[in-house]
Amino acid sequence: MQPYVIEKFFVEAFKQFGGSIFWRGRGRYEISRVPAILRDKALQNRFGESVATQYKRICFDKKNCQIPGIDVAELVTFGHPLLNAVTALTLQKYGVVLREGTIFIDDTDDDKNFRLLFGIEIEIRDGRQVTVSKRLRFVEISESGQTSLPKYVPYMDFRAPDENERKEILSAIKSLNWLTSNVEESAISFAAKNLASPYHREIEESRKIYLDKLQREIEERLRSEINSWDKRAAELKSKNKLNAEKAGRRANEIHSRLNRRLDEIAQERKIYALPPRVISSALIVPQGWFSLSPAKSFSTDAESRARIEKIAMQAVMQIEREFGNTPVDVSNDKCGYDIESSTPDAHQRFIEVKGRHTDADTITVTKNEILTALNVPENFILAIVSVDGNNTHVTYLKTPFASSPDFNAVSVNYKISSLIRQGEIIFKKNSTVT
Fold first, then answer.
1. Which residues, in sequence order, are bridge partners of residue 353?
2. What's the CA angle centered on 186, arms 181 and 191, to 5 degrees?
3. How far apart are CA 276 and CA 298, in angstroms?
4. Can you tell me the distance from the alpha carbon of 104 to that of 334, in angstroms, rounded to the nearest whole number?
5. Is 121 helix (H, G, I), strand (E, B) or coil?
6. Who wins on pLDDT, 313 or 174?
7. Burial class (CB in 10 A: 0-12, 13-18, 19+), 153
8. In DSSP terms, which residues pair with 139 in a beta bridge?
9. Distance CA 36, CA 51 (A)
């Protein structure tokens, strides 16, 4: 999970529960008050170390933990008891709402058909009935019944419908029988086969490596202690019978402790996956669906836009190959960039391509794309491609965005000239796509 994503969630949720948190610059915050409800939740769920009443400095990216000349900041990431408490309380409060479902609009999709998105939780337990791992994955089901696995968090660039859109969608779904035709069961069945089984094998393999090492260390240490006390008992047998008996009892106690610990490890090896469980659902409405409705009309020519985007992608792919790189089109994966390009020295370049007509002076960047740029600035490139027929002008920008978008933002419109001024131009080229 990207640090900026954790930060956005935590800050907003923490405030919702009455916490006092303040921005202190350089990726750091001060928490002046942690509400009792969060401290109590940490105690109830046994999240390891206790949650403090306040934190002088926290951060969400490890590079901001230690900055010369100022106090060390505590890293809040997965496993931190405060983040765990905020997450657990959020699920407790809004879990029912997640389960009931919602409606999202996908403004990047020109398709005409609805699809369903299910958030599915998979939990792995061991023979002690202890949860050893838990994972949230997403499954999409189309109207045709096709089931797929989004590679990345799919909802980052979705938005809520406005009131008119909601009314139109609610009216339309009344006649869509497939939405009630055991789609949830299909999602669970698909997850059991394609997610739970591989996940179980993955955890089983990693647990085996960990437990094999742990067992060797425990046996080595405790058997050494047993041998030491047995030897001590033998030495004292002819000199001090009472002390010899104490040494013998100590050896037996350690041997019993060893057996108990080995029994525990044997139970820890017996892992199994619980049946996948749907914890959230959403109806995804592609922007293209509205073009079918007489109630909507669009000035944007979708066909022309698609052509410009295609030419822009071709231009950038061609440039990457000229560099000697190996580019791969990952635009359908919605991973925060369009092209993943590998250099000869195995460096990864994540390129977001924005194709615009030569007369355009703005581009729209999704929240997911901005967060990706901020999380991996050394890898991210924004390629702005001005298209005029088959002629293109390509500009590569590094660090184009100065700050993260608002929590409620889905996308942000930028002046192209402003991005070029604040970013670092690393490459320019005029070319013709054939």
1. 383
2. 160
3. 41
4. 15
5. strand
6. 313
7. middle
8. 118
9. 10
The whole-model pTM stands at 0.74
- Tell me: the pLDDT tens digits for 166-207? 999 999 998 888 988 889 999 999 999 999 999 999 999 999
pLDDT range class, residue 48, cuts 50, 70, 90: low
Distance in angstroms (rounded) separating the CA atoms of residues 225 and 257: 11
- What are the strands, taking DSSP E only, across 271-320? 272-273, 277-286
86/40 Cα distance (integer angstroms): 11
What are the start-end ranges of the H helices in 61-102? 81-100
Q: Report the alpha-carbon angle 83-9-37, nearest 5.
A: 45
- Ramachandran class of 425: left when φ > 0, alpha when ψ lies in -120 to 50, beta otherwise: beta
Give CA–CA dist 163/251, Å, rounded: 75
Q: How many CB atoms lie within 10 A of CB 412?
A: 16
**CA distances to 145, 198, 289 from 172, in Å:** 19, 38, 11
Alpha helix (H) residue ranges in 270-301:
none
With tokens 């005409």, the residue in question is 112
With a CB cutoff of 8 Å and minimum separation 6, the contacts of 124 are 131, 132, 133, 134, 199, 200, 203, 271, 272, 273, 274
Q: Does pLDDT of 413 surpass 80? A: yes
**Tokens (6 digits) for 368:** 């997911």
Q: Give DSSP secondary structure letters for 417-434.
A: HHHHHHSEEEEEEEEE--
Listed residue (152, 246, 148) closest to 195, CA to CA: 148
pLDDT in tens, 390-406: 999 999 999 999 888 88
φ, ψ of residue 350 in degrees (nearest 5): -105, 110
Cα distances (angstroms) measured from residue 81 to each of 3, 65, 74, 131: 16, 17, 12, 17
- Give the H/E segment covering residue 129: none
Cβ density class 15-41: b for 16+ within 10 Å, e for less: eebebebeebeebbbebeebeeebbeb
Cβ proximity of 21 and 30 under 8 Å: yes
